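Researcher: Final request for today, and then I'll write up notes for the group meeting. The sequence and the SMILES for flavin-adenine dinucleotide follow.
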Amino acid sequence: MPGKTILVWFRNDLRIHDNEILLEAVKKADHILPVYCFDPRYFTESPYRTLKTGAFRAKFLIESVAGLRASLENLGGGLLVACAKPEEVLPEIARRYQVSEVYHHREVAVEETDISAKVEAALWKLQINLKHFIGHTLYHKEDLPFPIKDIPDVFSTFRKKIERDSAVRPSFATPVSISTPQLEPTELPTLSDLGLEEPKPDPHSVLNFKGGEAEGLKRMHEYFWQKDMLKSYKANRGVLLGSDSSSKLSPWISLGCLSTREVYWEIKKYEKEWGASDSTHSLILELLWRDYFRFMFKKHGYKYFSPTGSISEKPELSATQAYLFEKWKNGATGIPFIDANMRELKATGFMSNKGRQVVASFLIHNLQVDGAWGAAWFEENLLDHSPASNRGNWAYAAGVANDPREKRQFDVLKQAPELDPKGDYVRTWIPDLAAIPGAVIHKPWALSPEEIAAFGIEPSSVYLHPVLLQNYFPAN
Ligand SMILES: Cc1cc2nc3c(=O)[nH]c(=O)nc-3n(C[C@H](O)[C@H](O)[C@H](O)COP(=O)(O)OP(=O)(O)OC[C@H]3O[C@@H](n4cnc5c(N)ncnc54)[C@H](O)[C@@H]3O)c2cc1C
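Model: Predicted protein-flavin-adenine dinucleotide complex:
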């Protein structure tokens, strides 16, 4: 094929807006070859006997890749889809299409960087260079006021320095057209090809999440402009039910359907129109948390995330811990607030930030189960799973990260009535408890069997686990 061809390897950057690798390839090459690989390693069982990717996220991923293909086709190009390990298939594709270079965005988590290293080595044998770009964070690594090795480990110090000394770069322009070689037709896998079943939509889901760049941009516009919810973000973030308490942008951000820089500049546009507020600042702060965990991963690797500094040593569970972990996973611990959150996660792929903090603290500090097991369950189920955010937040909950407050333990019995004062959230997810009034819904075990029966509920259907209650909440 005459002219230079650059292969653009899409991973967690499934968009054409603010995408440096795409824009740069368009500038440098005569033809670009966009490729996405469904890597079979992400569709297997983890060492924690959970799935690496559950049905909700797999569906969202397939939709997102389809969205990317549609966007590229609109620009006059296309997308090659492979279901294979990138280190095996990319060199093969590169050779077939006489590619001179491969571009990708650098990742931070160990599994992802291992894969890049394997791809780099395999391409090197063909004398093809894998060029790394930095493109997943709000602040570019090179604009930080410190080198990675000196990044403050305490979030508030990190934030203050960044806010004072760094600036967010403008978004990259979207290419107006692309030229791809004549691509052989390739099909997206179905869920069953990935070994998964179609997930059942739940009527109580906070949002009907659909993958893809266009859907992510649509949600951002709806939340910021159409519904004008950004102005009350700070006050509403703790609300557990409904679509608009928080932005719900995380699934799109995690797969890179939406760039955080694009979100940041949209917030700035909103501030120009309506003024800056605690709410606009709070949302930017949350985006900074995401950067922080990515930079911590880059600085410390897995050392940051586990007391022993190694995740290869999988913490084993005693028989009791294994039993309690199963109860926790399935929303059957007997603590209504924990169970409601865990049921929401399993039924919809989403859980609020407060919910995540409380259930993580409960697993680690009350049930005494190593957080790595909880992180694995979140990895299977979360629509927005992203290794640095997930691992980072679990480490934070466990107090193994460098947090001056060390043990971040929540008292679920205090938190539950504060977060769910009338019990509506618990009632939504545990219909068995629907008849119990707000005052006692968070402590149904305080009711006698006669009182339970008086609410028209079978005492046996109020699932409480007496051993758990005795062990962890003896005073209640
Ligand atoms: C134990 C635990 C595990 C988590 N795992 C993940 C994960 O795998 N992926 C993920 O995106 N978030 C994770 N979070 C962070 C947070 O709960 C979600 O990002 C947030 O609830 C998503 O809802 P939203 O988009 O409405 O957030 P908003 O409140 O609207 O925030 C906007 C964006 O900021 C980012 N963000 C917000 N809070 C955090 C945070 N604490 N850490 C990192 N980024 C944040 C997200 O990209 C989010 O979309 C985890 C939190 C906990 C406590």
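Model: Residues 336 and 442 are 6 Å apart (CA to CA). The chain has three domains: 5-135, 137-170+212-305, 319-472.
Researcher: Thanks, that's everything.
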